[in-house]
Amino acid sequence: MTTTTVDAPKSTLSRIIAAGTHQRVLAFASLIVLLIGFSIASPNFMQTSNMLAILQATSVNGVLAIAVTLVIITGGIDLSVGTMMTFCAVITGVVLTYAGMPLAFGVVAAVITGAACGACSGTFVAKMAIPPFIATLGMMLILKGLSLVISGTRPIYFNDTPGFSEISRGSLIGDFIPSLPIPNGVLILFIVAAVTAYILNRTVLGRYCFALGSNEESVRLSGVNTDRWKIAIYALAGSIVGIAGLLIASRLNSAQPALGLGYELEAIAAVVIGGTSLSGGRGSILGSLIGALIMAVLTNGLRVLSVAQEWQTVVTGAIIILAVYADMMRRNKKS
Amino acid sequence: MLSRRTLVGALSASIALASAPAAFAQDEIYIPLISKGFQHQFWQAVKAGADQAAAEFGVRITFEGPDNETMVDRQIDMLAAALANNPAAIGFAALDSQAAIPLLRQAADAGIPIVAFDSGVDSDIPVATATTDNVAAAALAADKMAEFLGGQGSVAVVAHDQTSRTGIDRRDGFLNRMDSEYPDIKVVSVQYGAGDQLQSTEVAKAILTANPGLNGMFGTNEGSAIGIVNAVREMASEGVTIIGYDSGKAQTDAIREGLMAGAITQNPVGIGYETVKAAIAAMNGEALSTIIDTGFYYYDQSNIDNAEIQAVLYD
Fold this sequence. Notes:
The complex is a heterodimer of chains A (335) and B (315). Chain A has 335 residues and is mostly helical. Chain A has a single domain (44-334), classed as ABC transporter involved in vitamin B12 uptake, BtuC (Orthogonal Bundle), CATH 1.10.3470. Chain A has 14 helices and 2 strands, in the order H-H-H-H-H-H-E-H-H-H-H-H-E-H-H-H. Chain A has a two-stranded antiparallel sheet with strand order 1-2. Chain A is globular, with a radius of gyration of 21 Å. The two termini of chain A are 13 Å apart. Chain B is α/β, with parallel strands linked by helices and 315 residues long. In chain B, 48% of the residues lie in helices and 18% in strands. Chain B has 11 helices and 12 strands. Chain B has helices at 2-19, 41-57, 72-84, 97-109, 134-149, 165-181, 197-210, 222-235, 249-257, 268-283, 307-310; strands spanning 30-34, 60-64, 90-92, 114-117, 128-131, 153-159, 185-192, 216-219, 241-245, 262-266, 291-293, 296-300. In chain B, the strands form 2 sheets. A 6-stranded parallel beta sheet of chain B has the order 2-1-3-4-5-11, with helices on both faces. Chain B has a 6-stranded mixed beta sheet with strand order 7-6-8-9-10-12, with helices on both faces. Chains A and B meet through helix 2, helix 3, helix 11, helix 13 and helix 14 of A and helix 1, strand 2, helix 3 and helix 4 of B. Chain A: One of its GO terms (cellular component) is plasma membrane.
């Protein structure tokens, strides 16, 4: 397999193929293959309403995946994103339904709560030197418990806050282009992705994010306060999780306090399918977004094809392993 | 380019495999059932009933439910995917009624009748609900408990949750009957174990520790009842009359051994069967009663092997 780099003048095609070795493009190609495959297999798959359902299903997991990508790039992991999302939703419920404050306060509360939780995890990891796996495992349980305590284990409904369900279910785009009623939740996902990608690739915070993941020691030796940057990155990830909390609460028109466990693993799965390395220092927001889309397309497509649920789970697991294996192959070949 | 080809090839292969079941004629009648769960034996029994009705009436069904009963959004995604296939009717057991309303409304607007099952949907959209009368069933459990205790003593309840309709109805059905009919039986504790066997075991152990002279315990679903059995076994408690709910191998074994006095069984097979039957009737525009009572039974060592009981028990 040495034919991938030819020294003859490069045609556009060979450049595309060379680019194809990049995991993101690989993931994107898989997404297209899945979409085409499912469309051929079932005439009901490729309908506007079903595509919108897939996008809607991606929105929460996609935002969580973006948040966890940041932490994974620093060489850490965040197991608390699922229950943190729930916790932010519950706090929003307290602010909006229990305290009766206007909508904007609820939105701000969710983001601030997330940032504060993230800063806590970051402090445990950076200042107290607890391994990220353990620190965020602890946070996962703490936040799950607190959600149950604060809500009294009952769902908090947002019926008294007009417009709350519009955050996820409404469609700003649909107001302008009635034939394209893309839900706001999806719009928010793409905005979050664009902003986070900008931060990651164009700002100091982003550069330190990669640097910490590649070689934390050398960053420290060059006189950078690594602890502070690490806490900032966890806090940024937390505030993104807060947005996910808003999305799910809005979609369900309620904060469901028991929900959340298991969502962190799906987010991490989306991240690795998207080519972000769990060992840190490498990764992309676009990749995670595509990873989340692949998971949603796969789940929806298998359902539309009426594949037995047992097998849906098996196929999803196999895809994760294949995706990471393909990525390993690519890197081994390079080195 | 081995890697990419491998991946793409494998993806296509999995799709080819996956597409096999879709090779049905498009004009057949398709009724998806979206359940609250999938892996529990109870739901598998509901599925068996639905499959039975599907075979009998010549329709195709699918049966899906989220991994656990907290995953409200996953259930909604399942409902959305089911709608994509333009089904003739839908069977639905809501985890949270409110969250599902927009999609149910969408189905109703498209003229797809919804039949609720198990704990139902708080809405007027479903044309019928196939369910157990949980209040009456739990009251029967209270009557049996009182019979064992001779009308006096102290009892405790391990319930599966305090939010779902079934959790509330079974708890209150038991407590209200105790309160109104048996003034000399004191309910000392009501606790919740999420229907999880392990968690319910811990809850039941705590109750037994706190109330050494306890005479009876009622578990409101399979996991809760097995939790009580585990707790009594682990602590070697004596003189505790256990009444359970639903069935499953662990519970029926405990009844055969005499560790558990008896249990209420719903008719999960009947729930599945009646749901599909009602869906077909609704599709054909037939009138349906709002509540389809699928029935319940009390079983113990004496009648566990009767054909009537065996038909509704599951392992």
